[in-house]
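Q: Could you write out the predicted structure for this multi-component system? I'm mainly interested in how the pieces pack against one another.
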Amino acid sequence: MDGDGRDESMEDPGSWSQKRQAYLPVAIAFLALVLFALALIIATKGSRPSGCPSCNCAGEFDPDIGLLTQGGSEEESQNELGFGLAIFIMTLSFCIVASFLISEHSFFNLPDCLSYVFIGIMIGLILRLSGISATAGYALPNQEQFFLFIIPPIIFEAGYSLSKADFFRQSGSILVFAVVGTIITALFWGLGMYLLGTLAVSYKFRLWEALTFGALVSAVDPVATLAIFNALKVNRTLHYLVFGESVVNDAVAIVLYHTFAQMIGSSRPHWYVPIFSFVYIFAGSVVIGVLTSALAALILKHLSLSKQPTLELAFYMLMAYVPYFMCEGFGMSGIMGILTGGVLLAHYAHPNLSTVTQISSNYCFKSIAYLTETFVFVYLGTALTTFNHSWDSATVAFAIVLTLASRAANIFPLSRVVNKYRGNAKIDAKNQFIMWFSGLRGAIAFALSLNFPGGNEVTRRVVISTTLAIVLFTVIVLGGGTLPILQLLRVEGAATASKNQKHVSHLEGRDMDTFAAGQEHPTPDEGRKGWLERMDEIYFKPWLTNPADAANQRSTAATFQRLANLSGEGGEALTPHHIGSMFDGLEEPM
Amino acid sequence: MEDIRRRSVQISNQIVSQGWRTVVILGLAALTIVLSLALGIQYLLKEDIDCPICQPALNDYDAPFVEVDENQQEKLGLGITYFILTLCFCVLGSYFLARNSFTTLPDCIIYVFAGIIVGTGLRLTGRADAAGSAFPNQQEFFLFIIPPIIFEAGYSMNKQSFFEEAIPIFLFAVVGTIITALVFGGGIFLVGFFGIGHYFRFYEALTFGSLISAVDPVATIAIFNAMKVNKTLHYLVFGESVLNDAVAIVLYRSFSEMIGPDKPGWYLPVLTFLYIFIGSTVVGITTSCLAAFILKSTELRQNPTLELSFYLLVAFLPYFICEGLKMSGIMGILIGAMTLGHYGMPNLSETGQLSSNQLFKSIAYCGEAFVFIYLGLALTSFNHSWNVITVLISILLVLISRATNIYPLAFIINRYRRREKISQKTQFIMWFSGLRGAIAFALSLNFPGGNEETRRVVISTTLAIILFTIIVLGGGTLSILQLLRVEGATAINLSTAASRVDVDRFEEMDVTDVNESYIPNLTAKNSWMRRLDAAILKPLLTRDLVEPMEDFAEHEQEGAEGEEEEEVPF
């Protein structure tokens, strides 16, 4: 890495190299052990008496094997699954240490999701070379598991850690970009692809297929977007604008995807059905999210569950994820539901918790989200190397161009419209450019592509491969290249981009947000409160949330402030003593 | 270039000055690299065996992705919703139990009944298939539900009490479980042989016996907390029930290999047993020590989110490695959890300690509650094949085999025990408290041998035994003891909440507990372990806590006071 040398000169050379040397043996030892473990697994796999590694498994990977299925191979497949999971767990813990080391030493100016993708690619290569990709394939989630277990924590955490004050202040613009913008992107992309197909320059999709494809590709990934935005140090308003957009946008894209997908195939409903189902899914999911989190807040308020933190945390976590499954059960959008639930839970239920549970639930949600995010990127890398792809290079190239063009068709006209109604804080050209550039695609798009409807196998393959290409292109080229390009293009942009960025900064950014959650956020201008905020303060907050007595409030706020300060400073040396001292006031409110 | 040269010189200087530790680490690293390369090359040299059946599956990239129709996902979503709502209900239920000091029932019975009610409701409304699609199969059960429970058991175990009682625990767990399995298996075989109950073949009977001999730590702890026995006995029984699971599973696997035509030699079960037992222990210790070392030597604690993520991963890693290597994941994760609690936890930041403790506890709680709900659901929603006589006889055999375990072994232990003997009353309690639970049921789900009828009988009988032990033994112990012996009844503190949540899990497993447990308390028996621990392992693996130790002491006091205050409102 040539970035390496540059960075080094930036830092204080003495402490940096010393630090680095202290970690060097550890890093080497760790790497060696991971390698060793992988080799061990591969070797023992090879020495299995049953010659073929995937025979017992083939066809057995049915997530819904009934309880009483026959299975002589059950034992075998449990071993296989164990192997696969062990490999992935080791990879993930490797990623954590790697991202820590990267953040510690600022090796190169890349968002760390990139390094996860690379690690995934390497693991995939190893697996493929050693011929046990089938084993790992066992542990790879299918689309269903992806959506039931991997996506919800990420989206929940996004909603939970949203800074409500900023979000609601921007809600008008966010909704315009997320709803109207996503529809524009999807239609633009889909129609463009369809046209290119009819002109026979790329793979020929049918109309509704193209639109469905457009819908899934228009899902901007909050994770990747956030990572790059933290690196850019834009102003707070813009930050929340884009973050909010990318979160809400997922839900819209999924709803669009499902509505368009219904139109594929022979038993096509009327044209107005998509609109109805869009409204139904959207409104229904929001209602479920609101109801469950209100219920949770009420229960937590009226029962003193806080006397038993274990029960409290268990209850809170269960209530956090229930909207997702409920929405899915009713055929609505789980993502929309859990997003709404997360936002409201943080606002109304979080203050009802005991301090212990507030802290531990924060970190639990964050860690689970972090793990699943990391897994997603690793998975993308693994998918690139272990799947058999059907690349259609013309389609891929056009798709990438269309992705950029459709994002432009979303951002530039809409920000002109939005600017008309924004008071003083206009979105200037530079920020529009950043917004356009930061439309990274990620997990959601890929997960949706895995199960592309229509029953045409070739189409499905093309869709999966093209989506993967788009995702990797946006993450690697847009995500990795933004900083240098900005530095080249405009010097004032480069000045804002900090060299000494923390690559785990999306974690820290979230820390800050989450600690803001549940506290009385300072409202700077009382006059600008919308009707929602007023309703909230007069009705909802008193009804759902414990009136915090002053002492409790103070000590809780103080604890969070200290925690927030600590994690905000992040890298600076924290002695254990320092950490210990911040819990001084902790026992008080229990 | 100059820069790089300067740096490499610096590094080599640093290595020399850091001395032997770096040398050892680098040497180990080199060794592992060489070994892994060798292993890799060895593997690559092997020729690939083409398999006509799965070759397409290998090349077919969508093999892992099964087409699922929309309905399937909806069903799954609904099923999971039912489960989560029931769990929420149970959380609230045990909260009320604890709150109102309602002691006559351990709360696991409530969960079972909740499961039965929900199951009946689903069946009556014809929605059983939605819930059924969310039922974990045996594999998912073992991979996702059991590990957190066992991990938490090992993690929160008081290491000092455990090691003081190590020998009796091992005796009861290893020898006792083998006795129980053999007695039950032999008995059920004989009964079947004489045509009274269902006929099992010999090794089938033994396999059945070993699965039924897994005493459930969850249920046992619940009932033990309600009884207020002394601490020694508590750890004796708890330790036994935890270790016993691992032994029972190992026995189960060894015996089930003997079923079927291609029966290996008799010595194979013994070898398998040893391999699994030792291998799992080694895996558990190695991964946890490695994790502790990484946590110590990186500054991961500066970023609690990363730290907690890492800790979560390494906590469950031994389980999957062991399963992958055909060893006992339960054994591995148990040992791993104990090691991690001892060496790894002090390396965490305080936020990390707090959050990880809470998280492990809550996940384990949900897992446990889920298991009991599941038992209740299984009773109502499966198609059972009850064989009344077999059920009755096996319940009898369960009681008898537990008696042949406890009484003779307690007699032997008492002879060599210098401390407080295991009294008659205590032995009775130990015999009575052998509740069966999740592990037995999960094992029965996939009973080997290929005979469908036998498998059904095994599942139903196991379910019956579990419900009998939980409801009758678990629920009835208190009242029976009160009737039988008055001095027993006075020992029962009626004000203890039946909930293990506040008594066992919260009070006992303090953050400070681990630090307390390595204050040297030398007994003649295990002093070499303690010396090894204090002289080599602890300094190598755990962060130097000289400064924060004072902090800990303060917090401990504060915590203790807080605990006292908390008890009052109940």
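A: Regarding packing and overall arrangement: Confidence is low (pLDDT under 50) at residues 1-17, 45-73, 491-527, 564-590 of chain A.
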